[in-house]
Design brief:
By secondary structure, the protein is α+β, with helices and mostly antiparallel strands. It has two domains: 117 residues, Rossmann fold, CATH 3.40.50; 150 residues, Sandwich (Tumour Suppressor Smad4). Helices cover 28% and strands 34% of the residues. A hairpin with a 2-residue loop joins strand 8 and strand 9. The chain contains eight helices and 16 strands. Bound molecules: adenosine-5'-triphosphate. The site of adenosine-5'-triphosphate (ATP) has 23 residues, from helix 1 and helix 3. Keywords: ATP-binding, Kinase, Nucleotide-binding, Transferase.
């Protein structure tokens, strides 16, 4: 078995740089052959994936967080035939690693174990439109309050998982709503909004259970719509996201969808798989079981 490892040394506040040699040592110990590609800068994983010959590998593995996996996935799906890709793997060394949780991969050991065991499962992929081109995500993409939080968290990366929580409280003090026209499988939802998330998998920011009912292989994505909510209610509701009970507040609604389109005033930046990339208006669609992941 030969693996392609696409490794981000800067992920997880440079945890990647520490973990990469340990992963290599383990793989050699288990007799797994590999070729390693180290990302040198932002979005480099996309370019590495574009140049790979997938047929030469039995697995293509991201060593990083959700962002590294996002760039790798896009390089693979944009430049290669999804039907001919080998299974994908994740060794989570990012700050959040939200998508890997739905594969039951929470630690480096879990990621390695999944590769060594060789068991895979099918995973749906979501696409969104940016400048007339499809881009892909497997975790979630959102806009509004969530994007503002991530922007703040990004500046606080050194404090790890907790940076998202700090981001939430910082942005709560500056709470703003935006006008939105959302269409979910032909159903229109208009009005002022706090945030929207299109969720293929359940978690965001590491441990926040944004879409508790999302399944990564059911052919649907879940849409979480948070309408206008007072600062006090948001503060009371926010902690509930860790147990996935935030839907108890009437401002928070859940939908399941195969397609969605959205327009906002003003245009809002998007946050696919934790990366600031693209903006509204956009269109989201599901591609059932397009890829397989080691799990
Ligand atoms: N050598 C590098 N130097 C700086 N940035 C890099 C490098 N290689 C990749 N990147 C960028 O680092 C960013 C963060 O990576 P990633 O999301 O994997 O880690 P994280 O932010 O710690 O984890 P998570 O998204 O799970 O919270 C990505 O946008 C990626 O393109």
């Amino acid at each position: 078995m030969t693996l392609a490892l696409i490794a981000n040394p800067s992920a997880g506040g440079r945890k990647g740089a520490r973990v990469i040699p340990q992963v290599e040592k383990r793989l050699r110990l288990y007799g797994l052959d590999y070729r390693i590609f180290i990302t040198q800068q932002h979005a480099h994983a996309l370019d590495i994936a574009r140049r790979l010959t997938p047929a030469n590998y039995d697995g293509i593995v991201s060593i990083g967080g959700d962002g590294t996996n996002f760039h790798l996935l896009n390089g693979l799906l944009k430049y290669h035939d999804p039907d001919r890709l080998p299974p994908l793997g994740i060794i989570p060394v990012g700050s959040g690693n939200s998508f890997a949780r739905d594969l039951n991969i929470r630690t480096t050991k879990d990621g390695l174990r999944a590769l060594i065991r060789g068991r895979t499962r099918p995973v749906d992929v979501c696409s969104f439109d940016r400048g007339g081109q499809p881009w892909y995500f497997v975790n979630l993409a959102g806009f509004g309050f969530v994007t503002d939080v991530a922007q703040t968290a990004h500046h606080l990366k050194r404090v790890g998982d907790f940076s998202y929580v700090m981001g939430v409280f910082h942005r709560m003090l500056n709470l703003r709503f935006h006008h939105m026209e959302l269409e979910i499988d032909g159903r229109r939802i208009n009005g002022d909004n706090c945030f929207v998330e299109f969720c293929n998998s359940r978690y965001t920011g590491g441990k926040m259970l944004m879409a508790p009912h999302a399944k990564i292989d059911d052919g649907w994505f879940d849409v979480v719509v948070a309408g206008p909510i007072s600062r006090g209610a948001l503060m009371a509701t926010f902690p509930k996201i860790f147990s996935g009970t935030h839907g108890q507040h009437p401002a928070v609604r859940f939908y399941r969808a195969r397609t969605a389109s959205v327009r906002t005033d003003p245009p809002k930046p998007l946050l696919p798989d934790g990366e600031l990339f693209g903006s509204t208006p956009t269109r989201v669609a599901i591609h059932p079981q397009w890829v397989r992941y080691f799990s």
